[in-house]
Every structure is written in structure tokens, then in C-alpha cells.
Amino acid sequence: MHEIPSASIVRLSLQTLESYCTLFAGTMIVMVDEDGRLVYVNTQFLKETGHTESDLLFAGIHAVTDSGLFSDDPAQSIEVFKRHLLHHGGESLAMKIRKADGGSMCVTAAPIIAQTEQGIRCLLFLYSQDYKNRSLIERFGETMLQDEHIGVILLHPETLRIFDISPLACQLLGVAKSALVNEQLSTFFAGAEKEYAIICEALASGEPVRNYPLTWYRGEEQIEMLMDVGLLRSVGDVKEGAYIIFKDVTNLRSLETQVQRSDRLAMIGQIAAGAAHEIRNPLTAIRGFLQMFRKTMIEREMYKEKEYTEIMLDELDRINHLVGEFLLLSKPKEVTASWIQIGAVLRDIMPVVASEALLNNVTVSWDETLELPRVLADGEMLKQVFLNLCKNGIEAMGSGGTLMVRGSVIRAGKKSHVLIEIEDTGPGIPAHLIDKIFDPFVTTKQNGTGLGLSVCQRIMHDFGGTVTAVPRSGGALLQVVLPC
User: Fold this and answer.
1) What are residue 289's phi and psi, to 5 degrees?
2) Are strands 38-41 and 151-155 parallel, antiparallel or unpaired?
């Protein structure tokens, strides 16, 4: 395209040309290099012509232009293309675009010829004569497809090729929009055979699917969705298309889980509150008599029997501790909230954590000079939370590893929160337990009660904070968030 007069060429960066493509996303656009090859086609062009991006990229311009203007010979087509640009300069010109089904469409091409850092590029904006005749429903549909919060896939009903797709659906499939248009849907549902079978069955039978629960994994992130599938029919009941709609209900499912957990805790609390005194009274009597037996056995040098007595006393203490945790779930201790420094709370518990870590050959990594904003809470209750989380991490690593304690401030608008992260290098939390470890009696420890994390969550809830486990492939990461 070196023959084009310099007056017709503007100097623009390739990034600027790409920004034009984004700005006019609703217009058919192609970009051609100085050798007449297609180096870019946008999704609107693919939708209206039926071509796929993989078939067109780096093909000659003759691949999409009607033979009435260009020949089927690539070299000759390129020369004709150059002569047209030479003759018209930057003016619009009439063209015929060849569709994938063999048909053609008349367009008006408005070119921008630019000298970029990668050579000369010609950006063609193609305006179809049918654009103004589209119905209000079609334009409304296009608006819906631009919504980043609705996952929509439009399909050809017989071939199940993707006709159009919304940004959210592109994110779910993990592929750029231009690489999806006119491709087979099955290509992107290889890991979800059951859901793909449901889609095919619904479209074949004509029976729509409503609110089908679907769990989708995007990397390590788990997304909970409801899926709708149905056909689009004309007035004569002819299949014109099909649709799949995804509704992200991850937050709703999380809220339901929290409500269910609260209900379980309330039930356990009611049982504990009613039975605690009935349990503790006989425990006190049993413990008193066992202490008397132990004293007598020491006096009579019955050392073997004395050891049995001490084992029973230890087990009684364990039962008493368990009853105490039940009571804490139902009715927390009287708290005296005040403005405290979390950094000071962590410094107070670190000697205890360090001693526990030393016994298990674990290294503790944390910043002793950590300074964070004050929070409104009970210092002793927070110590219980952090001690529990740190001990869990140390015990999970067995013998050897690193426990990391970090602090930072996160801001969202006018609100600020303190974030404390406790991370270990152990085996991590199994994926099937990541959402259940805060439920009572759920534990990964061989001798655990499964109440420690439930108590931590209850304490944090009382101060307007949260404690959550972050899904990850190796090690465990617990995050404590408190408003400041």
C-alpha cells in the first residue's frame, strides 16, 4: 500500500486504532495490513457474516469480499484493493461482503489508513444497508448483551453455533468474545458434559430449562449459578434461535449458608443452655471424688491406679471444656468492647504461639513492629480467636513448616477494615470442606471437637467482623476482617 498518497495516510499508534475498534464495537470492523491480509475482525463482523475468527485471521482480503469487486486470486485481489484506496484515498466506497453461507451483503466501507509502528494498516468500518431496519427488540437484545452482570449466550438452534455472547459468559468460558462467535458450543463445555447434555435435550425437545443449579470453576474460584435454556421462535412457531442465560447467585448461596449455619448454632445453643448445668453438676461431684481417690492412692503407693485416676480427671476436664464451648456458642461471655490496637493483641499472644511452634519445629514469620488502626472489640476475645487460628495452623503442619501472620488495611469507598491473614504451609483445607469448616463438629483433626472455628466466627460476628477460609491449592489461609 506504499503507492497511496501520503496525504491520505495519518500517523497513529496501533493502540489508538484498537481503541477505535472498542469505541465502535457495534459496527462491523476489519483491519488489513499492507499486504492485504486481515489482521483483525471484530465480533460484530463475525455475527453478521457467519465467519469465524480462526478462519479469517491472516487470510487475504478476497476471503470476505464478493468476487464482483475482487477476484479469487489473492495477489490480484490485493492489487485491486490498493488501487481502490489509491483512487478513493480516505473516502467511503461501496463493497460487497461475502458471508459464510455463500450469500453476500452490500456495505459502505469508511477507511482509515494509518502509518503505525508495525507498518501501514487500513481500518475499514463497514456499514450494512440493513442496519437502520433492525427492530427495537433487536437493539434491546444488543444492549442486554453488553451488560457485564448478565451471562447470555445466543445460539443457532440446529447447529448450536454461538451467534452472540455477553461479557460475563465470556469470562465464565475463559475465552475472548471474538474467538467464540460462530464456534461450536460443545468446544467450550468439554468439562461440563452433564450441563451440555441438558442444554441439548432442552433445545431438542423444546421444553425450556428454568433455574437449573450449576457450579462453575474459573481457575480456583467457584461460582454458583442458575441456568435458563430456551428456544426463540418466530410468529409461525419456527425455530429462529436459542438462548442460555446464567444468573450469578454466589452471594445468595453464601447468605443461605450463613443463615443455615446460624440456625444450627442457635439450635446447639438452646440444647447447651438447657443441659449445661445438668451436665456440670454431676461432673463436679465426680471430679471431687476422683481427687479424693487420687490422694488416697498416693498415700497407699497405688501408683498404677493413680495414673488411671489422672486420665479420668483429664477426660472430665475435656468434657467441661466442651460444655464451655457450647455455652459460648449459645450465649457469649460478657464482653467489654473498647478501642484497642490489634498489633498489641498480636504481640501479647506471640510468645504463646512461638512456644507452640518451637515444639512442632515450625517457624513463625510476622512483623513485630506491625502498627494497624484501632478497632472496637474485646481484646481478650480477639486473643482467643488469633490463638485458635495460629494453633490450628501449627497443628496442621505436623512437624516442620512456616506460619505467617500479616496485617494490612483495606479500603472500600469511605469504609476501612483491618485485615489479618494467618497462613500455613501445611496440606491445606480439602475443597469439599472449605465452606463447612465453620460448622459445628466439622474438623480435619483426629481428636478435634469441631467447635473452635465456630466459636471464632461467633466472636467475630459480635464485633461486626468476619473470619473466612480462602480456597487454594496448597496450605491454608484464614482471613480475619474487622471494621476500623
Assistant:
1) -65, -40
2) unpaired
Cα torsion 428, 429, 434, 439: sign = negative
- Order the strands of the 209-218 sheet from edge to edge: 162-165, 151-155, 239-248, 221-233, 209-218
Q: Residues 207, 213: contact at Cβ < 8 Å?
A: no
* Helices and strands (H, E) in the chain, number of each type: 12, 18
One-letter amino acid at 275 equals A
Which sign does the torsion angle of CA 267, 387, 466, 151 carry? negative
pLDDT for 160 equals 86
CATH class of 6-132: alpha beta
**Rounded Cα distance, 437 and 215, in Å:** 20
CA within 13 Å, CB half, 396: 24
Q: Does this model's pTM top 0.90?
A: no
- Gap between the Cα atoms of 411 and 417, Å rounded: 6
Q: Which CATH superfamily is domain 338-483 in?
A: Histidine kinase-like ATPase, C-terminal domain (3.30.565.10)
Q: What does the pLDDT read at residue 84?
A: 58
pLDDT at 405: 93
Strand partners, 339: 376
Supply the pLDDT for residue 3. 46
Q: Strand pairing of 477-483 and 338-341? A: unpaired
Which CATH number is associated with domain 136-248?
3.30.450.20
Give 214's contacts (C-beta < 8 A, 6+ positions apart): 192, 195, 224, 225, 226, 227, 246
Domains 6-132 and 338-483 belong to one CATH topology: no
Residue linked to cell 489509491: 86
Instruction: Look at strands 362-366 and 401-412 and give their pairing.
Output: parallel
Share of the chain above pLDDT 90, in %: 5
For the chain, which residues make up each domain, given as ranges?
Answer: 6-132, 136-248, 253-330, 338-483
What 8-state DSSP symbol labels residue 228? E
Contact (CB, 8 A) for 178 and 28: no
Q: Name the DSSP class of 238.
A: -
